[in-house]
Design brief:
By secondary structure, the protein is mainly alpha-helical. Helices cover about 40% and strands about 0% of the residues. The chain has one domain: Ribosomal protein S18 (30s Ribosomal Protein S18, Irregular), CATH 4.10.640.10. About 10% of the residues are buried.
């Protein structure tokens, strides 16, 4: 049984598995300062174990990823965020 032309197009669709473009939310919304005193905002950049998420996952630019890392570390030092946790979110 041979496949028809429509079925071949469906099986070889290049849009399957396509991802949307990552973007730096700080550049998009023109956020210049990352406040370490806002742990609710900083939890977006931390996984459930308390580790800082990498740029390839969050989509941040290098400049803002460094600022996020410093802000998270400062918040941890001041006990606003935990260093290690089980199921933070």
């Amino acid at each position: 049984m041979a496949a028809t032309r429509d079925e071949i197009k469906f099986l070889s669709n290049p849009n399957i598995g396509g991802r949307e473009k990552k973007y730096c939310r700080f550049k998009k919304y023109n956020i210049r300062h990352i406040d370490y005193k806002d742990p609710d905002f900083l939890t977006q950049f931390v996984n459930s174990q308390g580790k800082i998420l990498p740029r390839r996952i969050t989509g941040n630019s290098l400049k803002y990823q460094k600022k996020v890392a410093v802000a998270v570390k400062r918040a941890r030092h001041l006990s606003l965020m935990p260093y290690v946790t089980d199921l933070l979110k």
